[in-house]
Amino acid sequence: MSLPRRSYYYRPRSTPCDEVLIDRIGDICLEFPRYGYRRVTKQLHREGWMVNHKKVARIMREKGWSCRARKKRWVVTTNSNHGLSIYPNLIRGLAISAINQLWVADITYIRIMTCFVYLAVILDAFSRKAIGYALSQRLDTGLTLSALKMAISDRHPPPGCIHHSDRGVQYASHEYVKELTFYNFQISMSRKANPYENAHAESFIKTLKSEEVHLWEYRTMEDVLERIPYFIEDVYNQKRLHSSLGYRPPCEFEAMVMVTQNPCQSALISPL
Question: In terms of pTM, does the model score above 0.70?
């Protein structure tokens, strides 16, 4: 055909399909600024894109969309120097296999212009869903108790559900333990100064800080009250992909589990 070899092997650098893909990757990175290429790839797969993770990584690198780690700054929120009762760790080696089998609780801080705001949160360890939370400028039992009551009201846990936390005075207080005992929880606490024994809660806090708190400049308590519930309920529970859940959001994962465990019931309540 009298064509040079380079014409036969030539491939255009960018196709219309690639342009659409790049735009979609940019939209995902804009909505989830801390997503790495693996989560971006999984989100594209959920939307029907047939794309390799290497290509996604290359595009994100070329466009400068790759997320970067942020250095941690620590503020102590746990006071375990008290004379209250301490409970043994019940979750070491525990195989988590069901919803409402294990709840994990923790506290973190959010800096605003004049002070700190404290967040108490409770997660279902099986689905990673945030099921209870509370915000306050006071680091006391009232904060953790509000988060616990929200979780109980929403989930109605069965007797024997394990509640795991650190040894902080907010969780060891008489009022908090009384509430756990009333609802027949098994009380579990991690060892002193050992965050790895509450890894699920620590992972949530890391996600909250990197994907929400560090991306916004909260000035007032009202800013925090507006953004944090939105992130927890609309982003973290409903949209954010969790690698430990097969790259599904917690609410979707729980719905899938309910369908698997109760196929007849799910058929009755499925939309027409």
Answer: yes
